Amino acid sequence: MNASRFFRSFKFAAEGIRAALAKEQNVRFHFLSAIIVVLAAFFTGLSYIEWLIIIGLIGGMIALEMVNSALERVVDLVTGDFHPLAKQAKDIAAGAVLVFALASAIIGLLIFMPKWF
Ligand SMILES: Nc1ncnc2c1ncn2[C@@H]1O[C@H](COP(=O)(O)OP(=O)(O)OP(=O)(O)O)[C@@H](O)[C@H]1O
Predict the structure, then answer these.
(1) Distance 70 CA to ligand 1 centre (A)
(2) Which GO terms describe its cellular component (predicted)?
């Protein structure tokens, strides 16, 4: 891949992030949550490994929410009609987001709680 193609792909990815922030309330919510968690981590004082875990979870959560939003668009593009497969596709993707969010919340509690109480 040459440099100009690389930067073109990078530009499209940046447009994707901008579109997700502009059009998806859930993505905005996760960005806001990420800022709060990073501030809490900063003031709590985490170890190097704990920072790696928190950053990994934040990145994974936002990326997964964006993939979910992309999948919703593809489903809506394919059919405007009610279709059981469309429902399964959207609900499974939403379920994946929920699984990751729950796991992240538990890991977050396990990291922060012992330092606060
Ligand atoms: N074309 C479709 N056929 C069948 N079920 C659908 C279809 N589109 C959406 N659904 C289902 O209807 C419910 C609500 O979907 P809706 O599109 O309103 O929200 P969403 O796509 O889940 O997320 P968001 O509110 O973030 O857009 C979900 O269970 C979804 O799977």
Answers:
(1) 13
(2) plasma membrane
